[in-house]
Amino acid sequence: MLDGLTAKLDTILKKIKGRGVLNEQNISESLREVRLALLEADVNFKVVKDFIDRVREKALGKDVMESLTPGQQFIKIVHAELCGLMGESQTPLHLSPNPPTVIMLVGLQGSGKTTTAGKIANYFSKNSKKVFLIPADTARPAAIQQLITLGDQLKINTYNPLDEKSPIKICKDAYDAAWRQGYDLAIVDTAGRLHIDSDLMNELKEIKGKINPNEVLLVADAMTGQDAVNIAERFNTDIGLTGVILTKLDGDARGGAVLSIKSVTGKPIKFIGTGEKLDALEPFHPDRMASRILGMGDVLSLIEKAQEVYDQKKAEVLEKKLRSQTFTLEDFMDQLRQIKKMGSLDQIIGMIPGLNRLGGLSGAALPEKEITKVEAMINSMTKKERLNPDIINGSRRKRIANGSGTLVQDVNRLLKQFLQMKKMMKTMMAGGKRARFMPNAFPFMR
Fold this sequence. Notes:
This protein is an alpha/beta fold. Helix content is 56%, strand content 9%.
């Protein structure tokens, strides 16, 4: 979502980094460009003004002006202030010492509350918590059934209100059931409206009064920009929020809400939705987001994602194969599948420092498209061909191309790159490096 802002800031900061000396004039010129980039990204005007003032004050200080690397010091200040805008450090959910912890989700219709309820349930059930879903949206047709279906899909219990129409009674009865049955968490999916109105707020206040939630989280659509900030302000004023979940951060809007919400409302962003799948939910880390915005990558999140999906036994088998030089196209396919489990390749590329600046890797769907082609070609090979690519002659290449809907040139390129990758991995193993997760090991992604 913030690719446009990242590209602009990267250009501005490269320029100032190249200056041997910083003075008030070139700092002011750079900050003017930063200000425009932030405003174009739909960051709140007052937030931008305060941010620029703080950066200017620190950039003109003695530590920067007399530094041997003033440009790098300037970037360090920008990074620190971006972290400050978003809350300095991660704010985890408050889990009650006396279960169940009650998480009440609020927001406008269409912001993604029901799906987010499923994502939170999935996140905590993976962390060995016993989770109970509570559908309290009686206004939107099929909303209750949607949450029940999500619960079935995730193998998580969902309260069934049967014919009960009162959201307040549903929440109270469901809370009592969660307490009796020893659940760790109860996640309440409330109703939304197309706009904020007094009926909605009164209903939410009543629910809050009945179940006394530990967390009241606004689910806001990041693609609505400053509207998301205004909505957060109103909900916080009327019912009191403990935090925000920003959804649709994988969209193509300007994304200024990420940088504005904490400063305007004083409430932290606790989670971000990064895709449609039920595992596409991440705890929000301001420092990591600041690094992504400045094009510095996010190695910690990348490692966490890899650890979640990577099979330790498969990694050990892979290492043995690499050492014995028996790595095949079947192993290569398995590696591609492991990477795909980590989510969108565009997101993965954004986490690798510097990689998102390389030509051909940003924007277009090149990596996803290429991986699909590679999978189709390998699937069109016989088992014998996958285990021993040396036997793939001209007629076999033509058959593989026809079977996969690709060209013979594509098959030739895949085989050539596979051999290059094997050589590179052999060199790495000879140098004593472990080949766990190596995005650059796939030449078609370069």
